[in-house]
TrEMBL record:
Keywords: Oxidoreductase. Belongs to the zinc-containing alcohol dehydrogenase family. Pfam families: ADH_N, ADH_zinc_N. SMART domains: PKS_ER. The keyword Oxidoreductase applies. Gene3D superfamilies: Medium-chain alcohol dehydrogenases, catalytic domain (3.90.180.10), NAD(P)-binding Rossmann-like Domain (3.40.50.720). Coiled coil: none annotated. This is Enoyl reductase (ER) domain-containing protein. GO terms for molecular function: oxidoreductase activity, acting on NAD(P)H. It comes from Penicillium olsonii.
């Protein structure tokens, strides 16, 4: 049981504004939850997007974390005090200060966290949660690829991962490679060596005027029917749609486009496929993996509204996390480069501004969280 009674956390005040608040009660875990002492948190673009678009006064901020178990709910049997773990929580979505990663202590579903091997640091692990969860939903639920294994058998299928140098893109490359696929990705020229080191088979500089044609040439024989867009803007969607390609000898039965962010318009995208071909647009909202009802207030028509509990999404993520633990243990996952910044919760707010202003590229900002009163 945690000996402390209060903690500090970053709490939403109004749209675009959050502050560090102190003397907040440390919650007790429910029957199937863990109480976790947070050792490190990492920033995502979602942190500033949530703050600026659908923040609710009183809501806790933050998603990604790593830490250790300090207390278990009465129905939890497979965790112990001191166990190391990482994950993400659904911060920012409700007027409840106990939900959110940017704090000293948090509660989480005991099935929806990732057990860490000893060789993985808290700083590195804090970068995993949202990135691997988003990539997993897209690759294995939307695109229906085989689950990753430590020693995959290559399969005759290519995938285009647009935005390979993004946090989700860098993990998606590794996961898709461990699923046996042939990986084509896009990034800027300076990130090409990094993409190759992660397992990409072909890398295209998206800034080149013939970048689309380069992708088409790479897949000419077998075609391209599977695309993951890790950026999700309209220009990147247009790029991806132009890359769908028929194979030379057979005909694909299905073309699937999975973006991390849906477009706000349903206007058709130009592509070179026959008129009879159908491109299926599949997008999943990562927060459905928690299996709980939630409401998002935003101007984006595809996101705004109330989302009902999805048992299937939670069951998938629980199963994937157990598989991902094996990949971590077998040292099959490389982490995105981290810039560790000291200063605790107060400097997290500064980091959110840096990400909002587009000043962070090819790395994750990570913040150790050190309580001044740990027993």
């Amino acid at each position: 049981m945690c000996a402390l009674k209060t903690q500090s956390a970053i709490i939403m005040q109004s749209r675009g504004k959050a502050t560090v608040e102190h003397d907040l009660a440390i919650p007790s875990p429910d029957a199937f939850e863990l109480l976790i002492r947070v050792h490190a948190v990492a920033l995502n673009p979602s942190d500033w997007m949530a703050l600026d678009t659908f923040a609710r006064p009183g809501a806790g901020a933050g998603y990604d974390f790593a830490g250790e178990v300090v207390e278990m709910g009465e129905r939890v049997s497979d965790w112990a005090v001191g166990d190391r773990l990482a994950g993400f929580v659904h911060g920012c979505h409700a007027a409840n200060y106990t939900i959110g990663a940017f704090r000293e202590y948090l509660t989480a579903d005991s099935e929806l966290v990732i057990r860490l091997p000893d060789h993985v640091s808290f700083d590195a692990a804090s970068t995993l949660g949202m990135g691997i969860s988003t990539a997993a939903q897209a690759l294995y639920q939307s695109l229906n690829l085989p689950l990753p294994v430590s020693n995959p058998t290559p399969i005759a299928q290519s995938i285009l991962i647009y935005g390979g140098a993004s946090a989700t893109g860098s993990i998606a490359i590794q996961l898709a490679k461990l699923s046996g696929l042939h990986i084509i990705t896009t990034c800027s020229e300076q990130n090409i060596p990094w993409m190759l080191s992660l397992g990409a088979d072909e890398v295209v500089d998206y800034k080149q005027p013939d970048a689309v044609q380069q992708v088409v040439n790479l897949v000419r024989k077998n075609g391209l029917s599977t695309i993951l867009n890790c950026i999700g803007t309209k220009p990147t969607a247009e790029f991806c749609y132009q890359c769908f390609t028929e194979p030379e000898t057979t005909q694909h039965r299905e073309y699937v486009y999975a973006p991390l962010m849906p477009l706000s318009t349903s206007a058709p995208m130009q592509n070179s496929l026959p008129a009879t071909a159908t491109i299926n647009h599949r997008w999943k909202f990562v927060y459905t993996c928690f299996g709980k009802r939630f409401t998002t207030l935003t101007d984006h028509p595809a996101i705004n509204g109330t989302w009902q509990p999805c048992r299937e999404d939670k069951q998938f993520m629980v199963r994937f996390y157990r598989q991902f633990e094996t990949l971590l243990k077998d040292r099959k996952i490389d982490f995105m480069p981290q810039e560790v910044k000291l200063g605790g919760l107060h400097t997290v707010l500064e980091g959110i501004s840096l990400v909002r202003e587009g000043k962070v590229h090819g790395k994750k900002l990570v913040y150790p969280i050190l309580s001044c009163a740990i027993p």
